[in-house]
Amino acid sequence: MKVAMHQPNYLPYPGFFAKLHLSDIFVIYDTAQFTRGDFFNRNRIRTFSFNGYMWLTLPVGKRNFTGVAIRDVSILDKGVFSKHSKTLKVMYLKAPFFDEKICEIVKIPHKNLAEHNIFIIRYLLNKLKISPPRIVFASELGIPIRHSTQGLVDIVKALKGDEYISGTGAKAYINQELFRKESIGLSFIDYKPLQYPQIHPGFVENMSIVDTIFNIGWENAASKLKETKTQPCNI
Q: Among 12, 16, 144, 223, which has the minimal tally of Cβ within 10 Å of its Cβ?
């Protein structure tokens, strides 16, 4: 049983869905600490600007988020949903596969950040027609949450998984020995940024998945995501 997990990001990039596709159980890591400057409440879309992109950001206030989990963060500006919907229309209306329904989904308000992100993720997953794995929430597992490699091992064990699929960025800090001790296989997603024509001049990789969809369509986006494989780690 392959287990993968990821924080509930806002309008995630394609690699999020590639990892989800590769797993049997996908854990929404809603107990992860919220940090500013990450992708929990923002993501990038293409524009005509000098650097080729802009951020869509959900305002969460200036409070101190030390020790605050993503699931406990609120969206403070009720008008931001309409603003983001309008921005997507302006930037992608002439894209070959523009889908106004995405703009309508983004516009539906939620007070809670995690709930809003997950609402959008479920819609995108369904439309991409990626066979969904069993999706669970870290907050519902009923186990102590530790923000370390041991915490990842604990979650995989609680779900009776025998393999953990990790992002490549974790290679630098993940303690592979802990997985070996528990006889849990470890593999890393071999994700390469998708290449495709974009409506705006030039190409900027790793935009939100909506950029991929608007430019090449649901079917082609899903096909490219499914090409991603994993590389086993010999531990």
A: 144
Task: Find the angle CA(217)-CA(29)-CA(144) to the nearest 5 degrees.
Answer: 165
Burial code (b: 16+ CB inside 10 Å, e: under 16) for 82-95 equals eebbebbeebbeeb
Confidence of residue 148 (pLDDT cuts 50, 70, 90): confident
Q: Please tell me the distance from the alpha carbon of residue 216 to that of residue 174, in angstroms, as a whole number.
A: 35
Tell me the whole-structure pTM to 2 decimals: 0.93
Distance separating alpha carbons of residues 145 and 67, to the nearest angstrom: 12
Least confident span in 4-13, 108-117, 125-134: 125-134
Q: Which helix (H) or strand (E) holds 168?
A: none
> Is residue 99 exposed (0-12), middle (13-18) or buried (19+ Cβ within 10 Å)?
middle
**Tokens 């509930």 label which residue?**
8
d(CA 225, CA 232) in angstroms, rounded, equals 19
